[in-house]
Amino acid sequence: MKSVELSLKYQGKIQVVPKVPIRSYDDFSTIYTPGVAEVVKEISKDRDKSFLLTSRWNMVGIVTDGSRVLGLGDVGPEAAMPVMEGKALLFKYLGGVDAIPLPISARNQDEIVKVVKALEPSLGGVNLEDIESPKCFYVLEKLQESLSIPVWHDDQQGTAGAVLAGLINSLLLTGRGLDVKIVIFGAGAANIATVRLLSSYGFDPRNMVVIDREGVLHAERRDLDWMMFNHRWKYEVAIRTNGENARTVEEAFRGADVLIAASSPGPGVVRKEWVSLMRRPIVFALANPVPEIDPEEAVDAGAQVVATGRSDYPNQVNNSLVFPGVFRGVLDSRASRIDDRMVITASETLAEYARRSGLRRDHIVPRMDEWDFYYEVASAVAEKAVELGYARVKMKREEFRTVARKRIEEARRSVEVLAREG
């Protein structure tokens, strides 16, 4: 496999490179001992100076326990490392962010929280990744409550943010508003977060029908008591959604406008005949590596707009559109947290950028090589952090945009120089 050959050749995807030049032996006394003692004393008097005098200001930890990696399941922290390295590379190249892969052997949810809290002095932010549900919801909530740096779970907020951006423009293209009926296929971290974010944006959860492995979620399902005690996030979705009280998959799809599938890889997980029950359907089939339904099948079934999570199809609705810009924005503003209002700002900025660059049914969100949108997302999120009172650095949006552009372009140039040098 090409990916294995690449990993063998480079022995990993990232490395640590010094920023401070070393021109002579005397430089060591400034960079390290005894000169570094002055920096230590400055920070010991004011711990916030660690953001000014060390690399902490731009450092994000990518934390996983390896319990739900891609579509492969519980592979453990060592096997999760290649994915976290790839994420770190995207952080750097797309967002100018220094990210450290941190697969940890902690398995219990409280143990994960404890480990990440202990790492806080080293980091400017935390990206949680590939942690199984419902553990991921608990870990995110506890860390957001207790840390003074932004914490984000990309499988939740990143995916939901990309979905909202694509949905805003899909509804515009097909002449519909927020009163649409939405089928949410799959009830994992991504789709539970999507229900929450869409509700925050203004969609009525009663017009959403959520389907999991057992069928349609509704307020009278036999496992509702189990959910209440073991998965309260799914329980809340079950009692808030499905105002029409659909009980079968066919009833859920009949007359629906939108399908958002983030479930098991296909093909054939979503049936063509289900899509044909919808009304001028908008279909997001986001499973990787294979969408839940083949895009051509979805079009044959009447789909007006189709998106997947893959870069080799049009309309890649993927969290890679969201997290680099969001983290660039929260790091530049030195925000203390990320909330749904900031994610919505990122989604609206992505949607607006796609409209400016040419909105079409095969272009509802920017492509990852339309680099400028990362600066736009970063500056919009930073401005929102200031507005919400989360920012320690307060500037205007244009100033944040200039800073973000400079940092992202510098990172990209450094990678390109290394590539040219072989």
TrEMBL record:
Presence of the UniProt keyword Oxidoreductase in the record: yes
Recorded GO MF terms: malic enzyme activity; NAD binding; oxidoreductase activity, acting on the CH-OH group of donors, NAD or NADP as acceptor
Classification via SMART domains: malic (SM01274), Malic_M (SM00919)
Sequence ranges assigned to domain Malic enzyme N-terminal in this UniProt record: 11-144
Keyword Oxidoreductase applies: yes
Pfam families named among the record's database cross-references: malic, Malic_M
Record keywords, A-Z: Oxidoreductase
The Malic enzyme NAD-binding domain, residue ranges: 156-386
Family: Belongs to the malic enzymes family.
Record protein name field: Malic enzyme
Species the sequence originates in: Metallosphaera yellowstonensis MK1
Lineage, uppermost ranks: Archaea, Thermoproteota, Thermoprotei, Sulfolobales, Sulfolobaceae
